[in-house]
Design a protein that fits this description.
By secondary structure, this protein is of the alpha/beta class. It has 29 helices and nine strands. The protein is elongated.
């Protein structure tokens, strides 16, 4: 299997590179990889059945991520779409495909199976494509997801009914098994949602408190697979359990971090899933039934578009949204392949019909990324009379735009957020302290649990459309890492970095920070501003002085006379101490030019002559007896400089 896996990955990489050159989706590349290496063409994969088994977990992780987007409260809010449009779409599509199948003289069992297969759409492809195109939260995206949610629920009775109708002795007696399946589903929902409400938040709170990323990721995988195992134990779909597990945590403040942690596993396994689907495409079917196959593909996709659009219109959705959803969901779904395999097992479908259905599914799924990408253009062209309506693009509901991202919700983060709220400015806060997040959310604050230095978390927070990002934590290394991520994603966003002192100030500016605000030094400047203002200095002159200090990177604020108990304050400020040296008659530097004396690591801050007069250092100034030389530097360097001067 290892050699097969290496071959598969190599071809997948090459396919993705080639297909991306033609601006085609990665999904098409994965399907093409499976088709090329599968048994119908090159037949290079001896263990593709095992690969299919592993790939099934891609659906599990996908459904978990999808569940994170829809909490129970949101599902209740969407009940009109899920149990309105979703139910109507399944019924209308099923009856239409059943009637069309009957026209081709199929048995009612075959018609039932074909209608079940073609009614389903692809949750895996639609969620991935909409997510990649950032349309998951659009009106079309939300309605499509609502329909897919009901389709995923509807596949459970199809999985029960098909084996029953294949047995003539039990013909007509499938009401009881179907009822049992619904009871099991109800039980699974009750158990998982109650567990998620009371147990999982405490569990992830403890995991988050450890501040150990590996443990948090392992916990995420454990919860996902445990929920999938539980529903499989009840004879239901693993995907249903994963979806419920995600929905359990959708209301928690861990959902963004969970989504970021699960994404690498989901993406890799989803690639495996699409490759395994590609192996189901038979070259012989394409060669011998090409014209028939193309007619079936076009007929199925047009029929599904029309039925879905009608279902949405009946539920009083907008014409643009209805048509857009119809185009998006026009393909056959991954559950269709499962139903075809089950029908083959019970000999409900012959080999040619099964191959045509599989080929229809693969081709329609391959076309889906392009259809979704251009669905808005297609809709606009088909509804030309409404062009003026579509000309304006509004901000999508729930989507961040021109907002501020606050990284860290400590003292500074909380103060900034309060001022932003008072001005009704949009913002989102990210913090990875579970206790702080819990307390803040209970207090009504808009805060999310997540590591701001993670690219996925920044994308979820809308960094691509953010107006401003503020780094409030005082950690130079984390700030540098975060700046690197930010500038790769959005080079134009303004970034303010708060530090305690000016350590690493130039490094932060070079890394892409728009402004660096050393808290202690800025506090001193504000105190100075008040002193000068109360002393009668004009406000304009004060502001000029402050700007000058900032432009020179606070050089005049670095002097510090320290005593026996000043070590802590000196370390906290990270300011090099000052030390005065009085030149004596024995000093060897007497008569030499001041500006030509170079002391390692030392700055000559000022020079005072006897009587306290300060001398402006220039090219003509020489050292004299009694001069007081004020030095600034580290302690060891100061001692060495004093020896040189004396």
């Amino acid at each position: 299997m290892l050699s097969d896996l290496l071959l598969l990955l190599f071809f997948a990489i090459i396919s993705v590179i080639v297909f991306r050159r033609f601006r085609l989706s990665n999904i098409v590349a994965y399907l093409f990889t499976g088709f090329m290496l599968g048994p119908s063409l090159l037949n290079f994969l001896d263990s593709y059945r095992e690969i299919e088994l592993v790939a099934e977990f891609g659906i599990v992780f996908l459904m978990f991520s999808l569940g994170l987007e829809f909490s129970l409260n949101k599902l209740i809010e969407m009940r009109r779409s899920v149990f309105g449009v979703g139910v109507l779409q399944v019924i209308v599509s099923f009856l239409m495909f059943y009637s069309l199948s009957q026209l081709f003289e199929m048995t009612w069992q075959q018609s039932f199976t074909v209608a079940s297969v073609l009614t389903m759409s692809s949750t895996a492809i639609i969620v991935k494509v909409l997510s990649d195109q950032q349309r998951l939260h659009s009106q079309t995206g939300k309605l499509a997801i609502a329909i897919l949610l009901f389709q995923d629920l509807a596949v459970v009775p199809f999985l029960i009914v098909i084996p029953i109708i294949a047995m003539p002795v039990l013909e007509g007696e499938f009401v009881i098994p179907l009822s049992i399946a619904f009871l099991k589903g109800t039980f699974a929902v009750a158990v998982l949602l109650s567990t998620g409400r009371w147990l999982l938040p405490r569990f992830f709170y403890e995991m988050g408190s450890l501040r150990f990323d590996e443990v948090f990721i392992l916990s995420t995988l454990f919860v996902t697979l445990l929920a999938a195992w539980f529903t499989q134990l009840l004879g239901l779909s693993m995907a249903l359990g994963a979806f419920l597990a995600g929905m359990m945590l959708a209301e928690s403040h861990y959902r963004h971090q969970l989504s970021a942690d699960i994404r690498p596993f989901k993406d890799i396994l989803m690639a495996m899933f699409f490759i395994s689907i590609g192996t189901l495409l038979h070259f012989e079917v394409l060669r011998d039934n090409l014209s028939t196959l193309l007619l079936i593909v076009v007929g199925v996709m047009v029929a599904k578009t029309v039925t879905i659009m009608l279902a949405a219109l009946i539920m009083r959705e907008k014409l643009k949204t209805s048509l857009g959803v119809g185009i998006v969901l026009a393909q056959m779904g991954e559950f269709g392949f499962i139903l075809v395999a089950m029908a083959n097992k019970y000999q409900l479908l012959d080999e040619q019909l099964s191959s045509l259905l599989i080929a229809t599914g693969v081709i329609s799924m391959s076309l889906t990324p392009l259809l979704v990408k251009y669905s808005q253009n297609i809709t606009r062209e088909m509804l030309h009379h409404y062009e003026n309506v579509f000309r304006f693009q509004k901000t999508l509901p729930g989507q961040f735009s021109d907002h501020t991202i606050i990284c860290g919700y400590g003292r500074v983060g909380q103060i900034v957020s309060r001022f932003l709220r008072s001005e009704s400015l949009p913002f989102i806060v990210l913090d990875r302290d579970p206790m702080r997040v819990k307390e803040a959310r209970e207090g009504g604050e808009q805060i999310e649990f997540g590591d701001a230095s993670r690219r996925e978390i920044l994308l979820i927070a809308g960094i691509e459309k953010a107006k401003l990002l503020i780094i409030t934590f005082d950690d130079l290394q984390r700030s540098m890492t975060l700046l690197g991520q930010i500038r790769l994603i959005n080079p134009n966003v303004k970034v303010l970095v708060r530090t305690k002192n000016d350590k690493g100030l130039q490094e932060l500016l070079d890394a892409g920070a728009s402004e660096v605000i050393p808290e202690v030094l800025e506090g001193s400047l504000m105190l100075v501003a008040q002193v000068l203002f109360l002393s009668g200095i004009p406000r304009r002159r004060i502001m000029e002085r402050l700007d000058c200090e900032r432009r020179t990177k606070y050089q005049h604020l670095h002097g510090f006379y320290y005593g026996q108990n000043s070590q802590k304050e000196k370390d906290e400020w990270l300011i090099e101490p000052l030390h005065a040296v009085v030149l004596t008659e024995s000093s060897e530097v007497l008569g030499s030019y001041v500006d030509q004396l170079h002391l390692s690591g030392i700055i000559i801050k000022s020079l005072h002559r006897q009587g306290g007069e300060e001398v402006v250092i220039s090219a003509e100034v020489r050292f004299k007896v009694g001069d007081v030389v004020l030095l600034q530097g580290l302690k060891n360097d100061l001692l060495q400089a004093e020896k040189i001067l004396l």
